[in-house]
Amino acid sequence: MTILNFKEIKCRLYEKCHESVQQRIANAQLAVENATESGNDETKSSAGDKHETGRAMAQLEQEKSGKQLHEALELKKMLDRISIDQESKIVSPGSLVITNNGNFYISISIGKIIIEDIIYFAISPVTPIANLLMGKTKSHTFVFNTQSYKIENII
Hints:
Layout: H1 3-44, H2 49-80, E1 96-99, E2 102-106, E3 111-115, E4 118-123, H3 128-133, E5 141-144, E6 147-154
Parallel strand pairs: 2-4
Antiparallel strand pairs: 1-2, 1-6, 3-4, 5-6
Helix pairs in contact: 1-2
């Protein structure tokens, strides 16, 4: 694979991460809307303990959905700070790290992405393996979960 191909793959990985975040945001917004609507419906029903319980449940669901939306928006902010054109000899957010035992895109945690039959893992900079990768350079070796890794390339 040439450097140009790696850059194309890095763009596709970024797009997959972006799509994932957009889907999370859309799902969370829908959940907030549904919880709000449910809460409004409970307000219209008759008074009593059942009514109060229903309102409380709707309020909890609204808060939970609101938190999920906030988290999704924070992921989007993290992703927006990544430059897909960035080139570095040191692993940092936005790097595509090719090792002898796996390929890692340091961005947000969405897990396994397959592009052209090759597996890549989109991981957050705060994950344990990313912590071992951050700041390292090509040819650096490290051990994670008893597995030895050697950094073969950083894009």
